[in-house]
C-alpha cells in the first residue's frame, strides 16, 4: 500500500468573530483557515487518489492544486513581498502548466512537505512586516501587504471550491 502523504486533516479554526477589530488577525486567520482546508481535502488519500483527475476534460487534481498553491505562495510572498528572485519548482517557461500536468515528477509526500514549508516561510515573511501598508519589494512595489494577503485568501477560496468537487468525485467525501 502506498504511504499516505497526509494521514490526517490539520486543525482548522475560523478567525474569532471579533477578529474584524484586528485586520491582521482576521486576514491571516482566514488565510491559515484556507490553507488548512486544502490540506484537509487531501488528507487520508493515497498518491494515486491525489493525482486523479476525476472531472474530464479538466486536468485539475488535488496534487496539482497543492503544487500550484505552493508556486502561488512562493510568487506572492517570496517574489512580490520580499523581492526575492524565485524560480518555479513545478513548472517552467517551456511547460507553464506542469504544476498541474507533470504530477509524476515529485512524490506526493514531498509535495505536501514543500507546501507546508512554503506556507510556514510565508507566515514568517508576513510576521516580519510591521504594517499592512508596506509595499511589495518585487513587482515594482505595486502591491501592499494587505492586497497580497487578501488576494491569497481569494486564491485559496477559489481553489478550495475545486478541491471540494475533486474530493467528492474521488471518494464521495463532502464537507466544508
In short:
It comes from Motilibacter peucedani. 55% of the residues lie in helices and 0% in strands.
Verbal overview:
- The chain has 176 residues and is an all-alpha fold.
- It has one domain: Four Helix Bundle (Hemerythrin (Met), subunit A).
- It has helices at 23-42, 47-51, 62-81, 98-101, 108-127, 145-171.
- Helix 1 (23-42) packs parallel to helix 6 (145-171) and helix 3 runs antiparallel to helix 6.
- The longest helix is centred in the last third of the chain and has 27 residues, at 145-171.
- It is globular.
- The two termini are 28 Å apart.
Write the layout of secondary structure elements.
Layout: H1 23-42, H2 47-51, H3 62-81, H4 98-101, H5 108-127, H6 145-171
Helix pairs in contact: 1-3, 1-6, 3-5, 3-6
* Principal-axes shape call: globular
What name does the CATH topology carry? Four Helix Bundle (Hemerythrin (Met), subunit A)
Low-confidence stretches: none
**Helix coverage percent:** 40-55%
Domain count, please report it.
1
What features would you highlight for this structure?
176 residues; single chain; Four Helix Bundle (Hemerythrin (Met), subunit A); mainly alpha
Amino acid at each position: 500500500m502506498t504511504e499516505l502523504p497526509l494521514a490526517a486533516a490539520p486543525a482548522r479554526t475560523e478567525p474569532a468573530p471579533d477578529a474584524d477589530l484586528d485586520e491582521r488577525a482576521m486576514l491571516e486567520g482566514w488565510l491559515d483557515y484556507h490553507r488548512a482546508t486544502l490540506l484537509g481535502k487531501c488528507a487520508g488519500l493515497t498518491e494515486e487518489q491525489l493525482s486523479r483527475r476525476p472531472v474530464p476534460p479538466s486536468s485539475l487534481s488535488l496534487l496539482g492544486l497543492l503544487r500550484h498553491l505552493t508556486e502561488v505562495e512562493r510568487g506572492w510572498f517570496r517574489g512580490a513581498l520580499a523581492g526575492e528572485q524565485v524560480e518555479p519548482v513545478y513548472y517552467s517557461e517551456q511547460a507553464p502548466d506542469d504544476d498541474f500536468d507533470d504530477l509524476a515528477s515529485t512524490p506526493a509526500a514531498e509535495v505536501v512537505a514543500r507546501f507546508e514549508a512554503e506556507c510556514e516561510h510565508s507566515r514568517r515573511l508576513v510576521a516580519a512586516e510591521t504594517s499592512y501598508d508596506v509595499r511589495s519589494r518585487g513587482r515594482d512595489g505595486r502591491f501592499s501587504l494587505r492586497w497580497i494577503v487578501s488576494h491569497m485568501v481569494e486564491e485559496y477560496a477559489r481553489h478550495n471550491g475545486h478541491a471540494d468537487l475533486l474530493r467528492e468525485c474521488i471518494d464521495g467525501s463532502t464537507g466544508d
